[in-house]
Design brief:
mainly beta, seven-stranded mixed sheet, 11 strands, globular, four-stranded antiparallel sheet, 121 residues
């Protein structure tokens, strides 16, 4: 079931930036922590970034730290992933998922279908 909508993907060159959006039409992201994942060609899904329901706490996988920034605007019911200095190895399908505070690991009640990011050298 798809309840989150990702957008902002595209094809860019190495060094460029993109901002992905994760919105929840018909649902509220308040009291939810949100995570961005990516799945590259032939690879397992990888957690990229996470943000707490308050927005005060964020976490990143090492390969994107300092280049990617996750944020949220609850007034717009949207979570963003700002991706700077993109590299070819960032090429993947990016998708978001959300779980209510207190939920177990990956116990999401909202998930999206993803948006493709392709970075050429």
């Amino acid at each position: 079931q798809v309840q989150l909508v990702e957008s902002g993907g595209g094809t860019v060159q190495a060094g460029d930036s993109l901002r992905l959006s994760c919105s929840a039409p018909g649902h509220s992201l308040s009291n939810h922590f949100v995570e961005w994942f990516r799945r590259g060609p032939g690879e397992e899904s990888q957690l990229v970034a996470a943000i707490s329901s308050s927005g005060e706490n964020t976490d990143y996988t090492g390969s994107v730290e300092g280049r990617f920034f996750i944020s949220r605007d609850d007034a717009k019911n949207t979570v963003y992933l700002q991706m700077n200095n993109l590299k070819p190895e960032d090429t993947a399908e990016y998708y978001c998922a959300a779980a209510p505070d207190g939920a177990g690991p990956r116990d999401y009640d909202l998930e999206g279908q993803g948006t493709q990011v392709t970075v050429s050298a």
